[in-house]
């Protein structure tokens, strides 16, 4: 028999557990549930707690109209930028205000290679052109680490706990737009080798990398630095190599052969990440309630591999490796290695997404936010630098073909909710994404359908 105090404590624990469970299940809201539960939820004020509790029925109705199944997060997808600071994007092309004096004269390969941050050795001070305006500097304050972003364990066997996985992925996508994945089936050795090969590439002498350097974003396999070095106001502390990966045989011939194992390692890695991405998209498809295979074909046609290199920086408080942005594509699968640097904006606060050994970081892109009609969220993130070690990361952007039509999935707008976005071609969006980034506008704003 338990004593009175112990019995009371056990009861409290049970109740807390029950309360947590109720709260958790309220957060996940697949369309299957949505269809059945909508009326019940709409009319009953005793429903499980909402993240942003509507204050009255008309507000609730507006929430339903605007956000459909995303009602539990009604404050989330339409949140407007409040910052007066221009936001940059990883592919932006901000108008130049750099004086000609600051620019290298001539565009010889040697001059171009001087622009790479990895070409600058033993820098004692941050060069003027890398010092960010105070409003977007990360500053000296330490950033809390983000414990809340879920780490989802695939257990190497997806089918045995499929329902649970779908639920956890959808929850994470709705609430954070980010999650980490462990036991995903890509071998640890391949994960580590990939980051090592990336690092080795950037650490090669300039003459071994020079043939890949280009100012032309259309070049198949392109080495560049910052975001748009020749036109941007201020530079970011990263070098980048990017190339397409699918179909492999069409692209691998353009990739580096130094390090000698580059093509083998990155090729194997690209195939494994591609397979994993298809599994993830299938799970997301189930969570959204769209017909199976919804993302196959044009919507997930391309796999762009982007290798980032962030060398140590003498004063990380003044610089960023990448500015605040959300990715334009469908989903992003990132191998961030063991060195921290990625930060996610959560409720207007930056949180550090610490590396979990052998895990992938997955995030939802703008395209998936639109297809899910705002149910899944493309969250803003940035990369900070550090003073001690170089950081190499390998990002796979799964993205639609340029001619793909992007629109909220029909099945999601047929069921009591209106589309939040007008249809557009992916190519059009990429163009406006860059332009909006230059002007500091939220990239999806011009595609939103007014709900009034
Ligand atoms: C990106 C990105 C994060 C990182 O390439 O879009 O957000 O940690 N990278 O390199
Ligand atoms: Ni990104």
UniProtKB/TrEMBL annotation:
Entry annotated with the keyword Metal-binding: yes
Cofactor (UniProt): L-ascorbate
Keyword Amino-acid biosynthesis: no
Reaction catalyzed: salicylate + NADH + O2 + H(+) = 2,3-dihydroxybenzoate + NAD(+) + H2O
Record-linked InterPro entries: DIOX_N, IPNS-like_FE2OG_OXY, IPNS-like_sf, Oxoglu/Fe-dep_dioxygenase_dom, Plant_2OG-oxidoreductases
SUPFAM superfamilies: Clavaminate synthase-like
Boundaries of every Fe2OG dioxygenase domain copy: 301-400
Compositional bias ranges of the Low complexity kind: 83-99
One GO term of the biological process aspect: response to molecule of fungal origin
GO molecular function terms noted in the UniProt entry: 2-oxoglutarate-dependent dioxygenase activity; metal ion binding
Key words, A-Z: Dioxygenase, Iron, Metal-binding, Oxidoreductase
Chain segments carrying region Disordered: 1-24, 82-110
Protein family (similarity comment): Belongs to the iron/ascorbate-dependent oxidoreductase family.
Record protein name field: Protein DMR6-LIKE OXYGENASE 2
Organism, as annotated: Sesamum calycinum
Lineage: Eukaryota, Viridiplantae, Streptophyta, Embryophyta, Tracheophyta
